[in-house]
């Protein structure tokens, strides 16, 4: 919609991972260096972690584009599979035919044979598993066994596990300690800094085809960084909506105010269905009626209750008075008896 207005050849802030737009922040550059070093040195297992949206998949695709010469690669991006289905996917990615009815052992034998063929040709083989935090413990343990495919000198298969921080927690489990010990290179992707966020925005605008017809000013960059925390995926979403807001306002200078305006279209509005509102109204009405009836009944009962309490009080007072009177009479009778029989009477002569 806004591409013509800003003279873009395509949208600069798309959400689909595209290696052409790879921005090498300091953290991404270090991650790529770790990957290339580990693969060249045939280190075996490499682990790359990062929070959601930090550019892990883009990093994987960039690595794949760099490994075209001298390497065969298998990229698995949907790892919620059984070990047998995972092996089939790996074989297909490496161009190895998969026949119906093959057992797990058959698949491993076929993979080992092809890896040996590649090795004799001087070709390395790299398996990259994205979203590896979703792998089951059983599958992770079987992946460890794949690293046993080796010659007397080198590993036949380099394995790169890429995932969210939960992957580290899973690998720390006692049942996966053998796999965890085999990971020789680890790196955690970090979010962009404020300066890197500014350079990232400008980088994508240039790749999309222009640098003069649109500008994110300092206030816009600060707002984008504050709202995104330096996460590339969130930066893309915010900048895309900010450009849309600028297009609507016919402005090519994107300000912090336009970024905030674009943010409103990203935030879901809380709406209650009409049926729910109707039930809420009916329920409230019933509660009010019940409460009113209860209060009315209490108001009617109160005078009678008060009179009853008063009558009970009078009756209690009378009873107490009668009881006290009876006690006094008995006391006097005892006193008279003692006076009559206690002292003898002498007759005068």
Description:
- The protein has 349 residues and is an alpha/beta fold.
- The protein folds into 2 domains: 114 residues, Orthogonal Bundle (Helicase, Ruva Protein, domain 3), CATH 1.10.8.60; 163 residues, Rossmann fold, CATH 3.40.50.
- The chain is 57% helix and 9% strand.
- The strands form 2 sheets. Strands 2-3-4-1-5 form a 5-stranded parallel sheet, with helices on both faces. It has a two-stranded parallel ribbon with strand order 6-7.
- Helix 6 links the parallel strand 3 and strand 4.
- Helix 10 crosses helix 11 and helix 10 runs parallel beside helix 12.
- The longest helix is centred in the last third of the chain and has 69 residues.
- The protein is globular, with a radius of gyration of 42 Å.
Distance between the termini: 147 Å
Give the amount of beta strand, in percent: 5-15%
**CATH homologous superfamily grouping of the largest domain:** P-loop containing nucleotide triphosphate hydrolases
Report the uncertain regions.
Answer: 270-277, 338-349
Q: Main β-sheet: number of strands, strand sense, barrel status?
A: 5 strands, parallel
CATH fold node name of the largest domain: Rossmann fold
Computed CA radius of gyration, to the nearest angstrom: 42 Å
| Overall 3D form | globular
**Order of neighbouring strands in the sheet with most strands:** 2-3-4-1-5
Integer count of domains: 2
> Based on helices, strands and strand pairing, what is the structural class?
alpha/beta
Mean pLDDT, as a whole number?
83
User: What series of H and E elements makes up the topology?
Assistant: HHEHEHHEHEHHEHEHHEHH
Could you say what the CATH architecture of the largest domain is? 3-Layer(aba) Sandwich
How many helix segments?
13
- The CATH class name of the largest domain reads Alpha Beta
Helix content: 55-70%
Number of strands: 7
